[in-house]
Amino acid sequence: MKRQIDLFAQMILECENIVFFGGAGTSTESGVKDYRSQDGLYHTVQDYGVPPEVILSRSFFFQHPDIFYDFYRKYFLIDAKPNDAHKSLAELERIGKLKVVITQNIDGLHQKAGSENVIELHGTANEFACCNCQKETLNTAVISEIKKGKVPKCSYCSGVMKPKVVLYEEPLYDGVAEYTVSCISQADMLIVGGTSLSVYPAASFVEYFKGKYIVMINKSETGFDSKANLVISERIGEVFKEVMKLL
Question: What number of other Cβ atoms are within 10 A of residue 169's Cβ?
């Protein structure tokens, strides 16, 4: 891996407008389950009678909010800490190399690590709004109710609170796609990490890259590998830890 790390470091040194596009694999080293790997949610969670991707749909949320929130409590409200990948990306932003993190994750770990310019394509697991009146209740109170095994209700109208995440059957939030495409199309380097690039429309955004280098960091192969200048099939946290030693 040393030769790949050396080349990765050299590419970073040459570029001034770097964009990171990441998925669930970015957070697995923090103890967060991904979705499609052998140990991911879609293959290991079978105790609800329906697949996790069904539970994480808009229609299931409104039909069975109790089951949805039981699943949510177990797999999304966990005490995870940023790993070396999150910390390295925050440092690259601090020194002016990295301009934006684009993440498909909803765990907020990039912000916890210190990244400031973060596009959350699918929202965040720690913010909520009422399905009826759209008002927001103090997030700590909502999370407290979920952790007690309850369906959180609005403090204004008693409607069901919904996490500010993009569920299956829902579009991305207004303006997110356009801003993402703008950032990627203007970058001179795109680092794609911890994602199989199989979730659309998010995966299609990488096609707008017009710059100099594409680096793919993912433990399994993706359909995008053939377009990359460098493919590293190692743990993303370890890759960033090593490359930061050279910068």
Answer: 11
Closest-CA residue to 119 (of 107, 130, 103, 131): 103
Tokens of 128: 């909520």
User: Coil, strand or helix: which one is 37?
Assistant: coil
Q: Among candidates 150, 130, 159, which has minimal Cα distance to 72?
A: 150
Active site residue 86: no
Both tokens of 199, joined, read 């979730």
| Two tokens, residue 207 | 């096609």
- Point out the catalytic residue in the list 43, 64, 86, 122: 122
Residues of the chain where predicted confidence (pLDDT) is lower than 50? none
**Using alpha carbons only, what angle is made at residue 124 by residues 100 and 65, rounded to the nearest 5 degrees?**
160
CB atoms within 10 A of CB 63: 10
Q: What is the pLDDT of residue 138?
A: 79
> Is cis: bond before 171, omega within 30 of 0?
no
What is the DSSP code string of 127-192? Answer: EEEETTT-PPPPHHHHHHHHHTT---B-TTT-PBEEEEE--BT-PPPTTHHHHHHHHHHH-SEEEE
Question: pTM value?
Answer: 0.93
Rounded to whole angstroms, how far apart are CA atoms 189 and 192?
10
pLDDT at 220: 87
- Separation CA 91–CA 11 (nearest Å): 16
At residue 182, the pLDDT reads 98
